[in-house]
Amino acid sequence: MSVQYDLPDPPTDAISAVKFAPKSSRMLVSSWDKFVYLYDTAPPSGQLLSKFEHRAPVLDVCFGENENVAYTAGVDHACRRIDLTTSDQKLLSTHAAGVRSVAYSPSHNILISASWDCTLHVHRLTDTSQEPLKIMLPNKPFSLSTTATKLVVAMSARTVHIYELSSLAANDKPEPWQRRESSLKFMTRAVSCMPTDLGYASGSIEGRVAVEWFDPSTESQARKYAFKCHRLNPPEGDEGGDIVYPVNALAFHPTHGTFASGGGDGIVALWDGLAKRRIRQYQRYSSSVAALGFSGDGKYLAIATCPGFEDGKEAVGEGEIKIHIRGLADGEAKGKGAK
Predict the structure, then answer these.
(1) Higher pLDDT residue, 239 or 133?
(2) 140 with 151: CB under 8 angstroms?
């Protein structure tokens, strides 16, 4: 039986990211209120453990080489390391514009930060005194995701670059392993990689999700597809077509390989990407779904909700900001053909 509860002491401004620790119930949350929050999400209600103040809104956060280390990306152009036990913060690098995303690779012990100044910084964490490797991007990055071997960078102008992490770790001034044009016609909002290291899903502002594979062979590329989601039927008598909402968040289940999507319509849906089918759709939340994250063991799904412009509420105070923790029943996130 599924259970759901809301974490106490949620952020006071829009939530930008939720990230579970790989091997525990600890979770990091970043917010536009200039804080990073550390929670223990263990049922029945979870608890806030610590808050870490920044100089400006925090756009992304991730755990690092262990569960006492976090990395953050902020509007103040900075990429930072936080010691979660002492609260000490260390500046790793400064971009020329806001830092949109951070991603840590445990297999290569590197941190990648992506900034609106159209650069990636690759930090080799074995020696943080070294200058990070700086890679110019052709367009503004909107989302990052990693597998054990790959980094996917989704950018404006429908541009997608895929890098081999081994090349980034070797400091080779690497070129992308692949350059692609997104299958989606409108701006990419989120990208998330398959835990199988075989491909990724991306979501757009126009209520669509695309599923693609890394293998460049013609046969494999023929398998990619896109589908409509996060749309509502128009009111009765309205002939204007569906009401379309952005896909704000995507997250793959760590063991089943299915994925969740969260939209501006306040809906979370689970999808079987291989079978091309929706597994289930949860009840509508009172605000836009801003971020999603599965726990490392796949037993919980964190759902962050907050008002978005699609709600007609420009002031965050007009709506609810919540972090819902959904405990998944056995088989709830399994694909249709899974045993």
Answers:
(1) 133
(2) no
pLDDT single digits (tens) 213-248: 999 999 999 999 999 999 887 766 666 677 899 999
Neighbouring residues of 304: CB distance < 8 A, sequence distance ≥ 6: 15, 18, 29, 249, 289, 290, 291, 292, 322, 323, 324
**Helix H segments across the chain?**
165-169, 218-221
Give 36's contacts (C-beta < 8 A, 6+ positions apart). Answer: 28, 29, 30, 51, 52, 54, 58, 61, 70, 72, 82
pLDDT tens digits along 298-320: 999 999 999 875 655 544 445 68
Of 329, 324, 316, nearest in space to 293 by CA: 324
Element (H, E) at 134: strand 133-136
Residue 57 confidence (pLDDT) above 50: yes
- Model confidence at 336, pLDDT cuts 50, 70, 90, reads confident
How far is Cα 102 from Cα 122, in angstroms, rounded to an integer?
10
Please write down the long-range contacts of 156-162, taking CB distance under 8 Å and 24 or more positions apart.
156/187, 158/182, 158/184, 158/185, 158/187, 158/188, 160/188, 160/191, 160/202, 161/137, 162/214
Number of residues that this document lists for the chain? 339
Burial class (CB in 10 A: 0-12, 13-18, 19+), 91: exposed
Work out the burial of residue 36: count CB atoms within 10 Å of its CB; fewer than 13 is exposed, 13-18 middle, 19 or more buried.
Answer: buried
> Cα separation of 226 and 202, whole Å?
9
- Calculate the CA 21 to chain-centre distance: 14
* Digit-coded pLDDT (tens) for 77-110: 999 999 999 999 999 999 999 999 999 999 999 9
Radius of gyration of the chain (CA): 19
| H/E segment holding residue 124 | strand 119-124
Residue labelled with tokens 């007609």: 312
Among 72-86, 122-136, 181-195, 252-266, which is the least confidently predicted range? 122-136
Helices (H) and strands (E) in the chain, counts: 2, 30
CA distances from 37 to 33, 125, 255 (A): 10, 23, 26
